[in-house]
Amino acid sequence: MTNTIDDLETAGAILVIGSNTTEAHPIIGLRIKKAVMRNDCRLIVAEPKHIRLCYYADRWLQHKPGTDVALLNGLMNVIIEEDLYDHEFVAERTEGFEELAELVKEYTPEKVSGITGVAADDIREAARTFAAADNAAICYAMGITQHTTGTDNVVSVANLSMLTGNVGRPGTGVNPLRGQNNVQGACDVGALPNVYTGYQSVTDPDIRKKFEEAWGVALPGKPGLTATEMMDAAAKGDIKAMYIVGENPMLSDPNLKHAGEALEKLDFLVVQDIFLTETAELADVILPSASFAEKEGTFTNTDRRVQRVRKAVESPGEAKPDAWIVSEISKRMGYEMPSLEPAEVMDEIAQVTPQYGGISHARLDEGVTIHWPCPDSESPGTPILHTKYFTRGKGWFCPVPYVEPAERPDEEYPLVLTTGRVLWQYHTGTMTRKSEGINELDPHGKVWISPADAERYGVENGVTAVVSTRRGDIEIEAMVTPRIQEGVIFVPFHYAESPANVLTNNVVDPVSKVPEYKVSAAKVKPA
Q1: Relative orientation angle of helices 205-215 and 342-352, to the nearest 10 degrees
Q2: Which pLDDT tens digit goes with each residue over 5-42?
Q3: Which residues 6+ apart lie within 8 Å of 282 measured at CB?
């Protein structure tokens, strides 16, 4: 996030797009509702389903899954055509405006309405509301990123934010909501195939030399594979062994048949996790690890806030902290990795990571709230990014044309399947589905289907249906509801007995390599 979670309460307008915030990020959802109810914030929700935030919204833009770029271009068309954009910000802090204006000129509200299904007047009113606010923020989540055009979607969000001058001030910003509690922190410290800690490129020889000197080893000069690329390589036999830590791809990967075949083809699979997951059941070796409550360290929140995690209970059985496990494996493989205390690990992160240079356990233990970048121990941190300039100097408007999803409905598969989360369960259910109370509230998956589609395909509420795509099919209870638009169905991905990702498409965004979980051509029939 370019701004903080607290900052959302000061926004005059908020656009939520591609995020079921109250269910996937309920604490942030509370902040948005508070902004609306107490501070007269104008809320715009762009979402294919009717979600709880729609009750608080000035305007709900129910666009078709996969049409985000068209919708965002339509909003920008109105803002430019009606001269509502921030002339001063655009002139002083950006470049490429003319190219953007030329592209979005063709995305009239009428044309965009034909693509998205949103009424032209609703597009106009949403654009005016967002542009009129003194401070306007955008929040998005995986409904934006999990597409073959996910990178285009994110760029379009940034274009809209810059066009209205809503960057670098309280109550503004581009605010991606991370999907899990320490995803931001994991990425910050190098859990990506193309960068070292602090997003420092592995292909830059000077940066590589810096890390070679810090760690005393020679390092490769080309990026590794992303998670989706690893599965493809394993399926081809190019990867022989895999070590999976805290991930459950046998429920979370797209096209589970492909994922299962890839893992079965490995010569050797190691899984390190806190419970016996569906993936761990395939492993040759299972390493039991400690949970967050059983070890020391830090989490970095979605708004770049670094927080201490403290050991509360002892680990059960043979479970050990992840760092201890990795260190011991390293020693047995011939490299004497030192067994460092968590505070010492944090100190090393600070030494090699400019954004974390002034962050330590000692400072955090004093109760200091720190958002990176925090370059030195005197710095208070940086709650708001890009206050005076962007990392590259001026912000670059990057015109993005609308491109259709990889798979569209046809005669055989007439519906659009989209996937996501529900409030009571979390991710692949590794933890939440072991809770008796949670399972009483939400024991199994349901396919959301509109009343018109239910009648058309002979599906009754509460009765088992078969949902099929070109990858496979699942049996799942039908929930007939007006909260989903005609022509679209929704399946949550938490449930192993009705795994949504049997159905999803493993085609990926060419830049980010993120799969298209949110759009698949599908059909439904009674079981």
Answers
A1: 150
A2: 999 999 999 999 999 999 999 999 999 999 999 999 99
A3: 250, 260, 263, 264, 269, 271
What's the CATH architecture for 6-177?
3-Layer(aba) Sandwich (3.40)
As to burial, measured by CB atoms within 10 angstroms (0-12 exposed, 13-18 middle, 19+ buried), residue 189 is: buried
CA distance 238 to 517: 25
What is d(CA 65, CA 518) in angstroms, rounded to the nearest whole number?
7
SS (HEC) of 132-199: HCCCEEEEECHHHHCCCCHHHHHHHHHHHHHHCCCCCCCCCEEEECCCCCCHHHHHHCCCCCCEECCC
Structure token digits, residue 207: 């940066």
Alpha helices in 227-269 (DSSP H): 227-236, 249-252, 256-265
- Domain parsing of the chain, residue ranges: 6-177, 183-371, 415-526
Tell me the β-bridge partners of 157: none
Q: What tens digit of pLDDT does each residue of 82-105 get?
A: 999 999 999 999 999 999 999 999
Tens of pLDDT along 174-225? 999 998 889 999 999 999 999 999 999 999 999 999 999 999 999 999 999 9
* In CATH, 415-526 is 2.40.40.20: yes
Q: Which two tokens stand for residue 110?
A: 């009428």
Beta bridge partners of 43: 14
Report the mean per-residue pLDDT for the chain: 96
pLDDT > 90 in the chain, percent:
95
> Between the CA atoms of 79, 485, 504 and 428, what dihedral angle is there, to the nearest 10 degrees?
100
The pLDDT of residue 477 is 97
Q: Which DSSP string do the residues of 422-467 spell out, in sequence order?
A: -SSS-TTSTTGGG-HHHHHHS-S-EEEE-HHHHHHHT--TTSEEEE
State the number of CA atoms in the 13 A half-sphere of 157 facing the CB: 30
Task: Read off φ and ψ for residue 198, nearest 5 degrees.
Answer: 75, 20
Closest CA relative to residue 377, chosen from 389, 391, 361:
361
Q: Where are the strands (E) in 216-318, listed by range?
A: 241-245, 268-273, 285-288, 297-300, 305-309
DSSP secondary structure letter of residue 483:
T
Query: In the chain, helix, strand, coil percent, each to 5?
Result: 35, 20, 45
Angstrom distance (rounded) from CA 287 to CA 196: 26
Average pLDDT (152-164) is 98
Model pTM score: 0.94
CATH of domain 183-371: 3.40.50.740
Neighbour order of strands in the sheet with 241-245:
241-245, 268-273, 285-288
